[in-house]
Amino acid sequence: MDDTAIDYAAVFQALPGMVALLTPGLVFADANAEFLKAARRTRDQVVGRRLFDVFPDNPNDPGASGMRNLAASLTRVAATGERDTMALQRYDVENPDRPGEWEERYWSPVNAPVFGPEGKVTLLVHRVEEVTELIRARGGPTGGRTRVLEAELFTRARELQELNERLRQAHAREREVALALQEAMLPACRQVGHHRVAVRYRPAVGALNVCGDWYDLVDLVGGNRIGVSVGDVVGHGLAAAGVMGQLRSALSAASRVAMGPGEALNILGRYASVVDGAESATAVTTFIDFDDHTISYSSAGHPPPVLVHPDGRTEFLDQATDPPLDARPDPMPRPQAVTDFAEGATLVLYTDGLVERRGEDIDAGLARLADSLARHREEDPESLADAVLLELLPPGGATDDTALVIVRL
Hints:
The chain is an alpha+beta fold. It has helices spanning about 10-15, 35-40, 50-55, 65-80, 130-135, 145-185, 235-255, 260-270, 360-375, 380-390, and strands spanning about 20, 30, 85, 90, 95, 100-105, 105-115, 120-130, 195-200, 210-220, 225-235, 280-290, 295-300, 305-310, 315, 320, 335-340, 345-350, 400-409. About 35% of the residues lie in helices and about 25% in strands. A hairpin with a 5-residue loop joins strand 7 and strand 8.
């Protein structure tokens, strides 16, 4: 055995605090010595059994809810992958030596997820500190005052927990409304006729992370041409979704009358400068001419589209990049560039949620995208979109939303 190897099982048992591990199904997987000591249970009485079977609420107290609150917190952590610090809980413990006799106890719990290799929550860490003696200093001349303080503290903790739950429900409702608004405003592929196009939108994980990513597909006037765009609005929730709808609609209209993508973004930039919430918004738009086999493009601070050639070579369209939409007070036109494509090539537009990862250079994400597109290039656009999302997005979901458009040329 390597002398430098760490015995994590021994470390877990030696932790100076009460710690238990549960499965997402709320079955005890392990518990350290401090936990078993404070709970007055043996390991055999805990491991492999469900939470409620080991620690039921006090049946003599109709208002007892400590264990139900704990189960709700653990279930939430398993579903969201986010840590949850609970309010102070009263949970009475049955004396194992005197069945039916319950002791009043107070606890301060924290629950956290443990992720497996595929990014899914595989275990739940339940760390709890008993604070009974802290808030129940019985006896002595201050005993009456302490009891009043204890009751006040417990009441305020319960109120805080109820308020947090109401906030979670309100945030969940806002998320549902924002997602419905986004879905209603994002166009379907039918707007570009017979062309083979796949579109995807994936919201960020978490109740508050509905953002402002968008895409647009339009038939252009004159010839066999379409316009394809994606954009990103800074912010979250209904406000970002509303701004997203305004910018998408404005670019859709501008694309139909502009001479090229640079002019379309120039018009959009002027509009964005008077829209509250459009600060630092980005966008990239492409005009595809199927008769001439050319793509004209322009970018306002957005990650570059990818052109996948039939032989697997990937080309990032980054020769016409400019600052974000509202970052140019001068009336100078935005740049645009043109590139050729061969029949059977694939054009891919996306937002940064697909390629950016915290603490990682964006070039690594772009390389992953190019590799995935090259390997799956022969698949139809729908299958290609699914393959790219599967390979690039974390299994548990990304912390930023993602828009993806794939066009077979």
